[in-house]
Task: inverse folding
């Protein structure tokens, strides 16, 4: 049941226009963190945007890639895509110590913007940017591109557990 609940949380958070689900809010989750003796986590959770909280819940116990393969075309047979809106949320989570990367995200983004890639187009309302290389990529460059991923840090895992715990408590009392 916890897995199913966790899978539904990102959709509920995305549909919310403030950080409140059912009968509880981010303040309830902050109280749970404080009750566990983690004042810093409570403060971090209170400073996050709705998109960052949604992403934190979505990450859960998995690792997510920063860049995925994009749609190909005759003029761009090899493309990659990245959700720029989600990337901002990931950076916010990283600034709060809630996620960690394979490679420092700022250094990785500098590399992406170094002229090695060009934007091909934007896809839909999800703000997914599609870009292609300006030349043939070496095996090492492809590995660097595909290896960039992020996951919850130990503080992020504690935040995720606090959120899921509040949801479970709420379900028990409803």
Result:
């Amino acid at each position: 049941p916890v897995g199913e609940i966790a899978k539904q949380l990102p959709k509920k958070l995305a549909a919310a226009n403030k950080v409140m689900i059912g009968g509880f809010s981010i303040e309830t989750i902050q109280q749970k963190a404080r009750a566990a003796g983690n004042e810093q986590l409570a403060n971090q959770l209170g400073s996050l945007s709705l998109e960052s909280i949604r992403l934190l819940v979505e990450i859960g116990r998995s690792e997510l890639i920063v860049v995925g393969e994009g749609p190909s075309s005759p003029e761009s047979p090899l493309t990659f895509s990245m959700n720029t809106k989600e990337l901002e949320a990931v950076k916010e989570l990283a600034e709060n110590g809630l996620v960690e990367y394979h490679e420092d995200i700022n250094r990785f983004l500098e590399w992406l913007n170094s002229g090695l890639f060009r934007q091909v187009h934007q896809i839909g309302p999800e703000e997914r940017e599609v870009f292609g290389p300006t030349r043939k990529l070496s095996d090492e460059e492809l590995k660097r591109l595909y290896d960039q991923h992020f996951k919850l840090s130990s503080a992020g895992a504690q935040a995720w557990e606090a959120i899921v715990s509040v949801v479970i408590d709420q379900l028990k009392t409803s």
